[in-house]
Amino acid sequence: QGLQSNGDYIAVGESVIPGKSGNLKWELSRAASYDKAILNAKSELVKFIAREVGQKALSEIEVGDPNSQSSSRPNGNSSPGMLDKVKMLLNAKLDKQLKAEGIDPNEVTPDQLERMSRKIIGSSTFKKTTEVMAEQSICGLVVKKVFLKDGRLAVVVRQSDAMMKLASAMTGNGPAPKVNPARGIDIDGWIEGLKPSELYTMYGVQVRSDRNGDINIISFAQMPTNRKGSVSIMNAKKTASTDADGYIRAFAGETVKVNELSSKFSEELEYDDANGNEMMEVMHKNYSKNSIESYSEKCEFSGIYTSRQWEFEDPKNGLSYHGAVKVWNLSSSEGAK
């Protein structure tokens, strides 16, 4: 877990599926447990990034004039990275502390600066604020692997810089990122080759490159039923299709929202300067679950297509499973406009 050599972040989240397996209620709980495991993985990632960046900011802070933090702020429409944000905030807090202690910023000693910096970074308010920053910096969290054994579910997730570049492209602020082109069969061929036992463990979003080096967002959803009637089966298929759409829209909506919030960071910092210590509340409001869901519902992501619908019946529990796999990329979106 943590930062990888290629710059990606890896985290693991776990959850327990309540009840006894082998019935419809347990299977429906499995989907909720998947969502909980994703949230747990994200929480671990947030803590790791906040802790790591806070330490980097402390090691890089320099003695400067009272306006030193302004030089680190983004120019124009560029968005600061997580480390830049924390350094900007730390500089702003240091300026306030120097003023409060009556110390001339041009005469502060390295020991005084280190003492103040450590005190600020160690405060609960600063830690909470950097965790909110970390949460806002995480977008495009994709699932690498799902493990299910004895009622315990674990997910391995990855956060990549390519997702932020994709977000910029989706908001019209840059070209779509290119990654290493896939070799062998195309994406639809790969999806078609998945076995029911593999599809059974797949929920949510994965990301794969195609032969052109474009990033494709692939969503997996399923709905079990213990009824054999055509109406029940049709409803299960419809639910799976709707959920698969929802995964892509939520993924893309969060990615775009995070990108836009990043560009507003300087405004939030200035608001904090003028209103005391309210920055964290502003950021929490902007990045709340309801805010993300509301934003995703308003976004139009055209070009989502169904790559595969699948079904199988488990003779052990008598349930039938109906699933959908959907695909979206920026090229398909532009082509559908």
SSE pattern, N- to C-terminal: EEHHHHEEHHHEEHHHHEEH
Mean pLDDT: 78
Helix count, DSSP H or I runs of 4 or more residues: 12
Widest sheet: strand ordering: 1-2-4-3
Biggest β-sheet: count, sense, barrel? Answer: 4 strands, antiparallel
Q: What oligomeric state do the depicted chains represent?
A: single chain
Give the strand tally: 8
**Radius of gyration of CA atoms, rounded to a whole number:** 23 Å
Structural class: alpha+beta
Taken as a percent bin, the fraction of beta residues is: 15-25%
Name the overall outline.
elongated
Gap from first CA to last CA: 40 Å
Detail the poorly predicted runs: 63-79, 273-277, 279-284
Query: What level of helicity do the residues show?
Result: 40-55%
Q: Which secondary structure elements does this structure contain, and how are they paired or packed?
A:
Blueprint: E1 2-3, E2 9-16, H1 24-60, H2 82-100, H3 110-122, H4 124-137, E3 142-149, E4 152-159, H5 161-170, H6 187-192, H7 196-199, E5 204-209, E6 215-225, H8 230-263, H9 265-275, H10 279-286, H11 289-298, E7 305-313, E8 320-328, H12 330-336
Antiparallel strand pairs: 1-2, 2-4, 3-4, 5-6, 6-8, 7-8
